Every structure is written in C-alpha cells, then in structure tokens.
C-alpha cells in the first residue's frame, strides 16, 4: 500500500499542527476505538465463551475452536464453498474487467457509449441484484433458459443445481461489478505513456507483446490492489445466498458468513459465531499476507 | 502497407464484435426485467421470451404497494440514508483534511492503519456491536445504522477525499494561514468548496451503499414497521416468489433513485469508481 503514501518526508517542523491533526482525525480515532477495537477485542473473549445473549458469557476456553476445527462438518463445507466461490470469481472478475477496459480503451471514437452500457449494471447490488437474477436464472422461464430452449438446448437448473449454484452467483456478480472494475482499469490504462508501446512496435511486437510487456507490468499495482480487495469481498459473500438460496441446494451455497449468521442470529450461539468470526479474520489476514509476499514477483511499482 | 491496413481493420471488427457481445450481456437482463415488470401473468411464462408485452400492465407497480408497506419502508430508507450521508460526508472530510492538508507526527503511520482497517471483515465486530446496541436499548431504532457514520465515515471515503485534497495547492492553504484563518475556517471556507466534486462522489457512493444495505437492517431492525426497502424486498422474495412481475416492479421501484442519480450525476458516479483505482 506504500504507493498511496506521499514519498516526500514531511517538514520536521510540525508546529501546532500535531494537535490540530489529531483533533481533525479524532472522529475516526474515537469511532475506531468504539466500533472497531472494542468489538474486536470483546469478540475474542466471546469466542472463548458459551454465550446466548440472555445469560452472561460462560468461559469455556478453546472448546468452540476445538469443535469448529475437529467436529463441525458445516464449518469445513462453508470454507470449501467460500474458497470455491472466491477462486472462481476473483480471476474471472479481474481478467474480464481488464479485457473490457482494453477493448474500450482501444475502441475508435464514437463507441465510448459501450463504457456507459457496461457500467449501468453497477448500480444494481445486494438484494435487488438477487431478486433480478432469481428471475433471470429461473430454470424454465428465465431469460437464459427460455432463450436457449427456443434453440432446442436444455439449460442447467442454475441455482437449483448444487453443481451450478456457485457458478450462477459468480456470473451474477460479474454482471454487476464488471463495468465498475473496468473503469478502475481504464483509468490506469490511460496513464500508460504511449511511447512505451511505440518501443514494442519498433521491435516488431504485436498486440500480445504490448499487452504482456507494457500494459500488465504498468498497471500491475492496480491489478494487485483490486485482487486483494476482490478476495476480501468474495470471502464475505452473504446477501446473495441469504436472499436467493438460504444456503441450498444441499448446502452448496452455505457460505462462511451465512453459516456465521445462522449460528449467531438463528441459534443465538454467539460464542461459537464469534470463534467463526475470528477465524475469518485470521483467514483474511493470512490470504492477504500471502498475496503481498507473492506480489514481489510480479508487481512493478 | 495495404496488407497491414486490412489486418488492422480485421482486428477492429473482431474487437467491435466482442464489444457488442459484452454490451448485450450487460444490457439485455435490464431490458428483460423492465419488460417482465409490465407483463400480465400469461405473458410471463413464454418460450421464447417475449420482449415487448402485448399490453402494458402498469398495475403491477400499484400492486407492489399492496404486497408490502412500501411507503413506510421508503420513508425509513430515506431517513436513514439521508443521515448516513450527512454523517459520512462531514466526518470523512474532516479526517481526510487531517491526512491531506495537515503535517503532523504519526500522520503517515495512522493513515496506513486506516487503510488496513478496510481488510477487517464486518462480521468480527457484528456480534459485539449487536450486544452493545441491545444493552443500551438501540435495537429497533435507526441509531445503530446512523450514529457510526458520524465517526470517520469509513476508510474508503477518507482515502478518496484525501487523494482529492492532496491536489489542492499547498500555497493556497498556507496563505490563508498567514492571514490568520483557523484550520477549521480553511477546511470550511476553502477546502470543502473546492472539493465539491469529490464530496458529491462520496455522497453518491454512500447513498448507493446505505440504500442497498441489507445486513444492518436485518440485524438491528426486527420490527416490521421499522424496516427499510432493502429489507422489505428481501422479505418479499421469500414470501411471493412466484409473483415475478410484481417482484420485478418492486425491484425497479427500489432502484429508481439510483437510476435517476446515474443519469443526472453520471460523472460523479463514474469518478467514484474510477478514483478508487488511482495511485498517488
């Protein structure tokens, strides 16, 4: 994240700006203490307790974690579902929106209208997105299956088929965020100096050489940042599953956060759910740290 | 020469075909949903899909109001969203001023820390906050949704505004300081007016986020009459899942403000999505 910080060393003379600085930053600092640090800390304590909200928490040590890791099949299933979703969604999203950006960036003038068309679905998120796609993916009369049925092809059952439910949700999320991510990459593409491409051209390189040797290295910090964010977003998938499938069919969309929600707000097993939350935090940090480590191999600042 | 020209135009045609295929992928579902929302029961279930309804059943939109207390949800959503926007714009711009316009010890370290909080899964704080808000009697009120927005306004918005504030010439701020203007005065009279486009972007993104937010109302607002549109639509999906035309009409009604904002303030909308990719 170093690129976001000014490289210039601030002047040594802070003067009275230090006090003012903290004063202006204080809404965030106070907010973080109350709505961030305190809940995270107490959440760890809850995770070591049996806690149903009605009675005070009963300390039980690491028993929640033991049960999670060694005798909870739903926990492992939800991890599998979530990682599957993430592994499918993140590369498709990054590669797809990068492709869109390259296409739009190279398009002749006058077809910039495509940019607007691609972006429109980005205003659809959450519940509305789920409601719309529940109908679009309807196995009989939805847009996709009724169209291909006309051509004599029987489409999949989409959300009703355990093998297709996760890919269905990935498809839906690509529709909704592809255009938004495209804009991010488009802005990055427009910052690439044209003469770099001319160098490749002089060496006789085609579009692939330009893409591989100029485009990707030049925008690699942006690709990296968004890979990190997309992974974090994907690990937190919840609303789609809650609204569309309730985790079904056959628990194939029982994602991590849906399981956590069920344990916390259906079973009121807050201690157990807190242990789940803490493990999610560790998983997220772990994956992000791994990406930072791998980034040294391919990200050029 | 001639040969290479033909190659280029072939490449252009291939690119154009791809552009059109993607355009269909993004736009067709939209048109299909608008069409569904106007169809009668018999026209919905047809193969192949019928794009233009025989008759336009505008009453589908009226029926939405029978299926759920739409106006109450609308009122709740507007109220909550409005206050969240006010809180977010003011507090995130104050904090961004600290990071973008002031020099102080610990600034850069704290800024990295603010960015790092973007990684925190919401779920880690969810349960303790639920317990906390329950203890102080805030469940079934709008406070758990609104009050936190006044404390910082979220790392992403702070980041976005700070990036914009950095582009404001330092000399401008310094000369105001020499003239004896207080930091609060500079923030209010110089920085905020200059940052109007960025503030509009933050306001629009915040609107989109809180208008669609499902998890917070789901957890904090169990009283049916306190619900938001997003929550109401979620419940509608569960209850009347076969009334597709009305469900599509309800979804479009809920999206209407966003569609309007998109067409009238497209620039800020696009800027919001774009600026998140800028470096430095």
Walk me through the topology.
The complex is a heterodimer of chains A (301) and B (280).
Chain A: H1 17-47, E1 49-50, E2 58-59, H2 63-71, H3 73-106, H4 113-119, H5 126-136, H6 143-150, H7 165-189, H8 194-202, H9 207-235, H10 239-245, H11 256-266, H12 270-298
Antiparallel strand pairs in A: 1-2
Helix pairs in contact in A: 1-12, 3-7, 3-9, 3-11, 4-7, 5-10, 7-9, 8-9, 9-12, 11-12
Chain B: H1 2-37, H2 41-44, H3 59-67, H4 70-101, H5 107-116, H6 122-135, H7 143-146, H8 155-165, H9 170-178, H10 183-194, H11 196-212, H12 215-220, H13 229-239, H14 244-264, H15 266-275
Helix pairs in contact in B: 1-14, 3-14, 4-8, 4-11, 11-15, 13-14
Query: What is the helix/strand order of chain B?
Result: HHHHHHHHHHHHHHH
Class from secondary-structure proportions of chain A:
mainly alpha
State the name of the first-level CATH class of the largest domain in chain B. Mainly Alpha
So what's the oligomer here? heterodimer
Percent helix of chain A, as a range, is: 55-70%
Main beta sheet strand tally, sense and closure of chain A: 2 strands, antiparallel
Architecture (CATH level 2) name of chain A: Orthogonal Bundle
Strand runs of chain B, count: 0
CATH domain topology of the largest domain in chain B: MetI-like fold
**Spatial order of the strands in the main sheet of chain A?**
1-2
Question: How many helix segments of chain A?
Answer: 12
Mean pLDDT of chain B: 89
**Average pLDDT, all residues of chain A:** 90
From the alpha-carbon coordinates, what is the Rg of chain A to the nearest angstrom?
24 Å
């Amino acid at each position: 994240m170093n690129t976001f910080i000014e490289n210039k060393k601030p002047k040594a003379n802070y003067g009275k700006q230090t006090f003012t600085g903290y004063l202006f930053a204080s809404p965030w600092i106070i907010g973080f203490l109350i709505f961030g640090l305190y809940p995270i800390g107490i959440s760890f304590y809850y995770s070591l307790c049996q806690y149903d909200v009605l009675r005070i928490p009963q300390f039980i040590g690491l028993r929640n974690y033991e049960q999670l890791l060694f005798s909870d099949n739903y926990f492992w299933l939800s991890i599998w579902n979530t990682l599957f979703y993430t592994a499918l969604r993140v590369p498709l999203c990054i590669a797809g929106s990068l492709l869109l950006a390259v296409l739009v960036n190279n398009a002749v003038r006058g077809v910039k209208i495509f940019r607007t068309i691609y972006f429109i679905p980005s205003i659809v998120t959450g519940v509305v997105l789920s409601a719309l796609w529940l109908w679009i993916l309807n196995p009989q009369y939805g847009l996709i299956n009724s169209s291909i049925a006309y051509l004599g092809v029987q489409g999949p059952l989409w959300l009703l088929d355990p093998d297709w439910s996760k890919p269905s949700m990935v498809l839906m999320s690509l529709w909704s965020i592809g255009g938004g991510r495209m804009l991010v990459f488009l802005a990055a593409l427009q910052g690439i100096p044209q003469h770099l491409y001319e160098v490749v051209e002089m060496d006789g390189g085609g579009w692939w050489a330009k893409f591989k040797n100029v485009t990707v290295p030049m925008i690699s910090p942006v690709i990296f940042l968004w890979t990190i964010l997309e992974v974090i977003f994907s690990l937190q998938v919840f609303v789609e599953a809650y609204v569309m499938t309730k985790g079904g069919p056959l628990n194939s969309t029982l994602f991590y956060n849906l399981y956590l929600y069920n344990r916390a707000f259906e079973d009121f097993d807050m201690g157990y759910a807190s242990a789940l939350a803490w493990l999610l935090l560790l998983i997220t940090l772990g994956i992000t740290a791994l990406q930072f480590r791998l980034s040294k191999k391919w990200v050029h600042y | 020469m001639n040969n290479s020209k033909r190659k280029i135009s072939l490449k252009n045609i291939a690119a154009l075909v791809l552009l059109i295929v993607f355009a269909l992928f993004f736009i067709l579902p939209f048109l299909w949903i608008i069409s569904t929302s106007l169809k009668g029961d018999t026209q919905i279930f047809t193969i192949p899909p019928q794009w233009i309804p025989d008759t336009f059943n505008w009453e589908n939109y009226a029926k939405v109001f029978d299926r759920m207390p739409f106006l109450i949800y609308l009122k709740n959503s507007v109220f909550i969203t409005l206050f969240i926007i006010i809180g977010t714009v003011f507090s995130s711009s104050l904090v961004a001023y600290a990071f973008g316009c002031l020099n102080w010890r610990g600034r850069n370290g704290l800024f990295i820390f603010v960015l790092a909080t973007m990684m925190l899964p919401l779920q880690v704080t969810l349960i303790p906050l639920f317990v906390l808000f329950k203890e102080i009697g805030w469940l079934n009120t709008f406070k758990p949704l609104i009050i936190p927005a006044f404390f910082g306004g979220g790392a992403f918005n702070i980041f976005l505004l700070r990036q914009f504030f950095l582009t404001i010439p330092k000399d401008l701020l310094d000369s105001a300081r020499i003239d004896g203007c207080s930091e609060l005065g500079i923030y209010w009279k110089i920085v905020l007016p200059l940052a109007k486009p960025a503030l509009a972007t933050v306001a629009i993104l915040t609107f989109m986020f809180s208008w669609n937010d499902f998890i917070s109302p789901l957890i904090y607002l169990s009283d049916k009459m306190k619900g938001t549109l997003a929550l109401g639509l979620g419940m509608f999906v569960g209850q009347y899942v076969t009334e597709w035309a009305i469900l599509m009409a309800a979804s479009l009604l809920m999206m209407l403000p966003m569609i309007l904002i998109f067409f009238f303030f497209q620039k800020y909308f696009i800027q919001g999505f774009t600026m998140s990719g800028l470096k430095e």
